[in-house]
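Suppose a classmate hands you a notebook page containing two proteins, each written out with its sequence and a corresponding row of structure tokens. How would you begin to make sense of it? This section walks through that situation. The first entry is reproduced here exactly as it would appear on such a page.
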Amino acid sequence: MVTEGIIEGKVHLVLYRVMRELPRRLWHIFVGLSLPIAGLLVPKDIFLPLLISVTIIFLIFELVRLKFSWLNWRFLTDFRALLRERGGFHTYRQ
């Protein structure tokens, strides 16, 4: 029937979207779990300065990446699997 084909098409579309999001979700799970675990295992006087330093480095990288289109293009190309297409990917693409 026609409705079976429509339902099957919707199921395939949902599976396709889930599989496209899988690397991004795994990345967030890994990073989201590693920071609290590191915070529990590493002494506070080491963890906090390290966390602040890494945050500043990432912020500087983001500013530089958005300033230079060639670096932004390289980032978008290399990390395409972790970026959402409907998010900022098209916004910064040149």
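The notebook's second entry, a different protein, reads as follows.
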Amino acid sequence: MKDKASGTTVPWSLFTVSKDDLGRVLLHVPLGILTCALWYVHWALAVVFAAGFIIYEKEQDKYTIDQAWKDIKGFLWGLGLTGSVLFVLKLLGII
């Protein structure tokens, strides 16, 4: 990713996404949400699902070189947003 002002390469960021990659990132947000739902069933399901997803993405990237970090970023967005919402709901005594 290039910085528009200076033209230098900017390191990867978890919090920014280009317009071109937004659809791909948002496509993987439901997987993060599903991981949070699996945590309520049993924590081991969530750990196995998350590990399996990340291993799958890294393996796929090894052969297709499709920048799997974009998919993992979407997964982490879903996980973080859902986790934050559940935390606040639990804090307020709603769940």
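A careful reader of the second entry would note: The two ends are 40 Å apart (CA to CA).
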